[in-house]
Amino acid sequence: MVNTTGATLSLVQYRYFYTHFPPCVRLSNSAGGTDTATSLIAADPAAPLRVGEMHIQALGMDVDVVDPETGPSMHDTGQPGEMIIRKPIPSMPACFWGRPRHETLPHILLRTFLQHRRLGSTRLDVLQPRD
Predict the structure, then answer these.
(1) SS3 assignment, position 110
(2) Domain locations in the chain?
(3) Of 28, 59, 73, 128, which has the fewest beta carbons less than 10 angstroms from its beta carbon?
(4) Beta-carbon neighbour count of residue 64 at 10 Å?
(5) Where are the alpha helices (DSSP H) in 6-120?
(6) By the 8 A CB rule, do 81 and 69 touch?
(7) What is the reported pLDDT for 121?
(8) In whole angstroms, what is the distance from residue 128 CA to residue 118 CA?
């Protein structure tokens, strides 16, 4: 299995991979949080491989999709929205080196969200759920 992280791979990237690797090598996309040292969307070796999609929520992750303007969950609509984590996770940093103690991850993320919103862009991580 070859796992990629970050943005979902495009059709061109999948084609490139499978022209250089045999079909028995599984290519999987996952989405993680570099700041949280974890994976939010994980690979599922038993799930079908679909170009441009990621597999499943990682174990213990309460990932949801919300409307970036109004905030309610959009998970059941199948529409794209802002990816959020609803509950604390075991590997969430308690603090950051070189930062004041009160600047925890939630504070920094909220400040970042508010700055993006002020600039007219709240799209930090877009996710579109699929059954």
Answers:
(1) helix
(2) 1-59, 62-131
(3) 59
(4) 19
(5) 11-20, 105-118
(6) no
(7) 45
(8) 24
C-alpha dihedral over 68, 69, 73, 75, to 10 degrees? -50
Residue with tokens 């079908």: 48
Give residue 121's identity as a one-letter amino acid code.
Answer: S
The yes-or-no verdict on residue 123 having pLDDT over 50 is no
Residue 105 has pLDDT above 80, yes or no: no
Residue at 41: amino acid letter: I
Beta pairing class for 27-33 and 38-42 = antiparallel
Token pair for residue 49?
């491989």
What's the distance, Cα to Cα, between the start and end of the chain in Å? 23
Contact status, residue 89 vs residue 38, Cβ threshold 8 Å: yes
How far is CA 109 from each of CA 80, 103, 116, rounded to the nearest angstrom?
A: 20, 10, 11
Write out the two tokens for 58.
């990682």
Other CB atoms closer than 10 Å to residue 68's CB: what's the count? 20
Count of CA atoms in the C-beta half-sphere (13 A) of 44: 14
Side-chain half-sphere CA neighbours of 88 within 13 A: 8
The type of residue at 80 is P
Instruction: State the Cα–Cα distance between residues 75 and 72, nearest whole angstrom.
Output: 9
